[in-house]
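Hi V.,

Quick status before I head out on leave. The structure for the redesign project is tokenized and pasted below; the design run finished overnight.
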């Protein structure tokens, strides 16, 4: 018997447990979404959807660029919160 907990994929998707903390990071670093866009080339719409927690998919390239810009880890941008 496996120790891995069984996960209902429908429940995991409907109750998204990943929170994007980009808005908090922008505020803490005293910058703006416009400056992030200009410095990174990430589209304004992607930044907006991330800031408003509307994303369900995150590009590794986007996360890498944001980590480099903010000099942070992915865990500073995305947070898993179990239900």
């Amino acid at each position: 018997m496996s120790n891995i907990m069984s996960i209902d994929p429908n429940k995991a998707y409907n109750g998204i447990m990943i929170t994007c903390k980009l808005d908090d990071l922008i505020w803490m670093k005293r910058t703006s979404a416009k400056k992030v866009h200009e410095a990174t080339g990430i589209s304004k719409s992607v930044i907006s959807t991330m800031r408003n927690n509307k994303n369900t998919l995150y590009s590794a390239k986007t996360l890498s660029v944001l980590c480099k810009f903010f000099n942070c880890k992915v865990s500073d941008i995305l947070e898993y919160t179990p239900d």
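Above is the designed sequence. Residues 17 and 72 are 21 Å apart (CA to CA).

G. will cover questions while I'm gone.

Best,
W.
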